[in-house]
Amino acid sequence: MNIVAITACPSGVAHTYMAAESLEQAAIARGWTIKVETQGALGAENEISADDVARADAVILTTDIELNGTARFEGKKVIQSTVKRLVVNPSEALDAVEA
After folding, report:
1. Can you give the pTM of this predicted structure?
2. Which end of the chain, N or C, is less surrounded by CB atoms within 10 Å?
């Protein structure tokens, strides 16, 4: 599986990056490829390109705040979660990708 994701929290600091790390570790443990864009206090980092989207089997988005640039995922399987759920149990979002 090839996944792209965006993580973001209201303050755009610690939890944004914790969620990204949790997702990355869980995806790698499954042998999946993942690219996570963070939308935090520093703006968008590790931005997902059009090529990344084209190769993606699914997209994981957080829903704690309004995300920028989600229209680029039109036509893709999109899984939505909260930052807290991604930090605590990233496998839940990855399981939803397979469902």
Report:
1. 0.92
2. C
Three-state SS at 93: helix
Among candidate residues 4, 5, 6, 9, the one labeled active-site is: 9
Phi, psi of 55 (to 5 degrees): -80, -15
- The H or E element containing residue 45 is strand 43-45
Sign of CA dihedral 66, 71, 73, 79: positive
Asked whether the beta carbons of 35 and 4 are under 8 A apart, the reply is yes
Token pair 């990204």 is at which residue? 20
Q: What is the pLDDT along the chain (99 residues), one digit of tens a residue?
A: 999 999 998 876 788 899 999 999 999 999 999 999 999 878 899 999 999 999 999 999 987 888 888 999 999 999 999 988 888 999 999 999 998
CA dihedral of residues 67, 71, 77, 78 (deg, nearest 10): 10
Active site residue 50: no
